[in-house]
């Protein structure tokens, strides 16, 4: 199994090298790891009080951010090393001010893991949600470094719980404590002999609450609604946009619309605006008067979606016709109904929101049309659903405090 694991790492790296010839993100992944151990050695030389946080990508980082910031505030004598697996996390957060060092994680080989752990000599390690790298965790275990994972969810179909998952169960021995999101995860871990687990919840609730409190006021949006309900479609992909734009063009309701796509390259934005038949405006460089006059606002930049939600009455979250929905909580914390496509079953918060009446999933355009019309016409139902969403976020906060209270130095 170790041989198979090592071969999979080797071939993955080989595939990235090939993809880097034509894929910019693959090139970033590769370029960012050139001479990475030498860069790390030069950066941390002389440091002796380091704590390591690892995140797969940007979404996991945002999930772990409340813990990072609370840890920094509670333990200012420690310096924090933050690593990322993917470019989407590293390139956006490489200058993040609440940590001391930000690096790409070197590829998980025995040699790299041994060198990395020797260089940073961490006093404590936190993995955010996922990422089970065998050689890193094995090296941490051998060095008896306190190692935690938080906001994670375990599922019966994962390899840890299969008869052939012995190597991966061994990986789990590296963790000092598991902070999980649900009771099923506790039961699964205990079923294979792990008692060092507790139900802490999901730190994303703490993060979205913090984001909402600090949301940027966008003066150009203050009068966009003009007394009409505003539908915000966030993190959308082409299939989402196909349904949303079809509704926009056909609907006789008085909604105003905001579309904030997941990808904002010029070609994608051009495809969106060319399909819209109602008056629209692009967000960047638009005057307040132009925005007020538009029926549809198309966001052609990144970094503003979390602040835009404050101006909405109903939200649509993209990704449900692809690998999975994006962040529903950023919208839910503002107290509005949340709608998304059918691929949501791996997201506990989405299932919880549906059960509480704060969210709805749909399979086809006809169902989406009915949902949008329903929440336009029935204001009381819209407010009730939105209140369910907001109450859920409020009640689920507190995971960060549980984690920091439990860890031991």
Automatic annotation (TrEMBL):
Record-level GO BP terms: lipid A biosynthetic process; lipopolysaccharide core region biosynthetic process
Transmembrane segments: none
GO CC field: plasma membrane
Alphabetical keyword list: Cell membrane, Lipopolysaccharide biosynthesis, Membrane, Transferase
Signal sequence, renumbered to the chain: none
Designated name of the protein: 3-deoxy-D-manno-octulosonic acid transferase
UniProt-annotated location(s): Cell membrane
Catalytic residue positions: 60
Protein's UniProt keywords contain Cell membrane: yes
Organismal lineage: Bacteria, Pseudomonadati, Bacteroidota, Bacteroidia, Marinilabiliales
Similarity remark: Belongs to the glycosyltransferase group 1 family.
Role, per record: Involved in lipopolysaccharide (LPS) biosynthesis. Catalyzes the transfer of 3-deoxy-D-manno-octulosonate (Kdo) residue(s) from CMP-Kdo to lipid IV(A), the tetraacyldisaccharide-1,4'-bisphosphate precursor of lipid A.
Domain of life (superkingdom): Bacteria
EC number: 2.4.99.12
Pfam families: Glycos_transf_N
Pathway recorded for this protein: Bacterial outer membrane biogenesis; LPS core biosynthesis
Catalytic activity: lipid IVA (E. coli) + CMP-3-deoxy-beta-D-manno-octulosonate = alpha-Kdo-(2->6)-lipid IVA (E. coli) + CMP + H(+)
Organism: Ancylomarina salipaludis
Listed InterPro entries: Glycos_transf_N (IPR007507), Glycos_transf_N_sf (IPR038107), Kdotransferase (IPR039901)
GO-annotated molecular function: Kdo transferase activity
Main location class: membrane
3-deoxy-D-manno-octulosonic-acid transferase N-terminal domain boundaries: 45-206
Keyword Transferase assigned: yes
